[in-house]
Amino acid sequence: MSPTSFPPNEFWDFSSRLYARDGVAEASLALQDRHGIDVNLLLFCCWVAASGRGTFEDGELESAIDRVAAWRDNVILPLRDLRRYLKGGAAPAPYQLADELRRVIADIELHGEHVEQLILSAGMTRLGTGSFEAHRQARDAAVNLSRYFAILAIGLDEETDRAALRILVSAAFPSVEDWLVADWI
Length: 185
Prior knowledge:
Blueprint: H1 10-20, H2 24-35, H3 39-53, H4 60-86, H5 95-123, H6 134-151, H7 158-172, H8 178-184
């Protein structure tokens, strides 16, 4: 299956646009590296709010985490580990060949991330019938993100973690004033 054969998906489209915005990739990867969080679930927290679904209902976020856990553990994380191992070469393999393999693994990893997002969005059966007002959506995204970190029992550090989450929410909802986002995160 080539990446062009994926079915259309609003969550993937939202994530692709958001991830490409200034600072989002760096902030998301910093949270991933610091706490082992799933970037797809960070993006999912924002998408649920942005799609008019508001905040997670009881059990929805836990169910989403459970739904992708085996995929993440058995596909995404091993691919990421392999890609990182190959970064900078993997002697005795020639550097150029190891780097070419790393790029192929990165493409496969992205393919796996896409599959994970399809799994997440398929599990969200509740329709987006809530608020489409940016301030409300941004606040709902902040609540969803806070719930995600609470479920994982991760305390947020003001200087690094909260700053990264503010970048993510501000990029997802650029019309919302930064001071409000800072208030919510």
